[in-house]
Give the backbone structure.
Amino acid sequence: MVLQSSLMQHGEESIGSRISWTGFCFCLCALFIVRGLMLLCIYPPLEGFDEHQHIAYLAYANENRDAPHYGVSRMPKSLYSDFAQNPNPVYGCEQLAAIGALPYSRFWAEPKNVRYDADIMLYSAFYHPLYYRTIGPLYGFSRSRIDFRFAVYAIRMLNIFLAGFSILFFTLPFRALFDSERFSKLTALASSLVPIYLVYVARVGSDAAALLICSLIFFLLARMDDGHALRLKALTIGVLLGVGSMVRVSVLSFLPVSILFCVFLPSVHGVGTRQRLGYVSVLLVSFAAVSFRSFAWDMHTYGMILPGQESLAIAREGKSLFGILGAARFSHLWTFFVKKMIFSNLWTSGWSFLPVPRLFHSIFAAIILVCAGGGSAGLARSIFLRQRVWSPNGRLALLCALTWAMVCGGVYLHGLSSLVAYRSVIYSPSYYAMPGFLPLLGLMLMMLQGYGSTRLWRVMVGILIATFVITEWYCLLFLAAPYWAQASALRDIYSRLASVHPAFPAPLFFLPLGAVYLAILAVVLRSAAGPDLRN
């Protein structure tokens, strides 16, 4: 009996620990990529947020061998036929109706007539050209050798792969959030399944590349905890920040994160004040060396180092930073930071902004509130009962908190700019918080331990994982796909969506990819449900 029990225990442990922590995170990366390809099998070609503008930037750069200039450059007319021959979300049609573009509600029933007499502003022209020049050859080759749709989906697939590796580097540090390997794996799995994170990157745009850079910075900051090669890590972080600032301005949220996190290094192997200042100096010098030329060009061209539609509009009105900060309100602590940045970040269809069903939204919001309550309960237990509640690695929790605070702070500043420039914060959508959203979820699930109930923790994380999975596929297949196809019959939905897709990815491949998705999901769930290994 003892031998049998020992063999059973050994077999159980081998099943649960067959995948190492690093291997598990690679599985999450693979799962994300498969999910992304499945999404693209259904996703129409221009549904991504502002996608036609990013495509126009690529086309302009390819045709003119130069970056566009905001306020001067116009959308290339070579794209007019491509845009009019594909369905457009309502927000896209607000600009493209002048060339004959039709929304989903009219596209499948009306003839397509292209007009070339319209002059359309290229409002994405203020972006730095690094990303667009880097993928420009891929777009040019795909567009000229195959067709427009294949060019769009080729770049989308590239972005899915980049974002998949951002999942890898965001989740790798999560092992230090818990003593329990099982808890770490379940937390990493839940964080990797956020539906809006996938929708956010499944478009032509620089978001996926920016998220990958943010995740690398997060990973390197977390690895500074081991006390090895700190100067090299600071140098690498500075270079990544410099390159990231030329990819997307959201990466700059990690500049204060990196500086502030280095301030707390004395607890790591006795790092002194002089050494800390040295690491910060290395970081800043490498960042400045990489980004100086880009900032200087923006300053010379636009009169500011971070040009944007809102900031340029505010500058034309002669308003200052103090005028922007004056728009801040205490009510925004709930309406913006909680309702918009957290509760609203579950799912949306893309630029059609189809809403998530209220039930799923309510469950997600309730889980977040329960996690926040766990933080309060854990703090109370730590103070009054002097109990050890959380993992001894408080520095990673600090990094997650700093990341979320700085990312949200950057988005809020953008929201205030939108409020001053356009009297609305609609131009600061909730998905702008994605660079800090996975660290936030890791932190929230760590806080959930504050109740001191392992059973409650497992139940809540299980509900969260189920909510993410069910929300993603229910909304995509039963809400978005019928809306995009403007049909209710499965055959009509399939044929209409297939007609606006390239050969791959296309609806034909959705079920085969679904089988791969279920297989990988089963593997990671089996690994996460293994024995509760502890350090």
Remarks:
- The mean pLDDT is 91.
- The radius of gyration is 24 Å.
- The CA atoms of residues 190 and 465 lie 5 Å apart.
